[in-house]
Amino acid sequence: MKDYLTTNIGKKVLAITLAIILWIIANFEQDIEKNIEIDIQYNDLSPNLIIKSAPPESLNLRIRGSRTKLSILKTENYSYPISLNKVASGVSKFNIITEQIRIPGVNIISLSPSEIKLEIDQLITKKVKINPNIGLPDIGFSVVGKPKVKPSSVKISGPKSILSELKFINTDEVKIEGEQTNFTIEVPLKTNNPLLKILSNEEIVKITINIQETIIEKEFKELGINIIDIENKNYKILASQSVDLLFKGPYSKIKELSSEDIRVTASAKSITLKRGSKHKLSLQVDYPNNEDIRLERTTPITIDIQIK
């Protein structure tokens, strides 16, 4: 037995090695299946037409071939062309023909999609207005008037069915937090549809915005009235003994105004202190920031007193 194993050992090793190599080659060259994608090329579309629907960009193929062939296959070298030279507005259908896909040494088992539908539309140009998209200002400030846009309109190309309904095009949002006066800013336009193209290199516009502090009102009710410039304290106030006041002014000033800041007086300096006499006194209102804050209404504007 030992002699059998050791006799012609070189030839036996060589035979075993060859057998292994042949087994590897036979199995390696066995046909296998694989999924690949190839690009679809849409050609010859008239410049007056546009594909409105989103067409598939590639075909999914199930292929069979040798392991060696499939391992070195470069899918970018292959594509499926579709000629659009005879299409018109509407829906066009294209059947995918397997025989038109030629990959040497490879069999195509299946593909998808087997049919492609394209929605074709007229390509038109239209001039539309530009709508500035303005954000919210800080509390206490507001945009005064309409923002000025330059240019005020722009030419856009796109499918007729979409562009005929388009009334305006928005800009990107202009954030105005922190702005408290007039300013001008350059802002890009925004179509929100990849089929709409802005022409004339006018993708950016200038917007001028006028921001001012908001003018608000604030009312105080039943404030007390002080009678001044009278030595004789023996009098009585007839009817109302309080006053209602309405102020108007910038937000930052008005919001800080409180009843403690307001003094309402009525001077009796010029009246006759005769017992039983009645007098009408005008009210004087003193308050801070009167250069910015305006007293809109005083109710009542006078009070009546009687000397006892």
Summary, kept brief:
By secondary structure, the chain is mostly beta strands.
Key traits:
five-stranded mixed β-sheet, 3 domains, 5 helices, RNA Polymerase Alpha Subunit, Chain A, domain 2, 13% helix, nine-stranded mixed β-sheet, 308 residues, elongated, mainly beta
Structure description:
The protein is mainly beta. It folds into three domains: 30-121, RNA Polymerase Alpha Subunit, Chain A, domain 2 (Beta Complex), CATH 2.170.120; 123-213, RNA Polymerase Alpha Subunit, Chain A, domain 2; 215-307, RNA Polymerase Alpha Subunit, Chain A, domain 2 (Beta Complex), CATH 2.170.120.30. Helices cover 13% and strands 48% of the residues. The chain contains five helices and 23 strands. It has helices spanning 2-6, 9-28, 67-72, 160-163, 251-254, and strands spanning 31-43, 49-51, 58-66, 79-83, 90-95, 107-112, 115-131, 141-143, 148-150, 153-159, 168-171, 183-190, 197-198, 204-209, 211-213, 215-224, 226-228, 235-238, 242-250, 263-267, 278-286, 294-299, 302-307. Strands 2, 5, 7, 9, 10, 11, 12, 13 and 14 form a nine-stranded mixed β-sheet that branches. Strands 17-20-21-23-18 form a five-stranded mixed β-sheet, with no helix packed on it. It has a four-stranded mixed β-sheet with strand order 4-1-3-6. The longest helix has 20 residues, at 9-28. The termini are far apart.
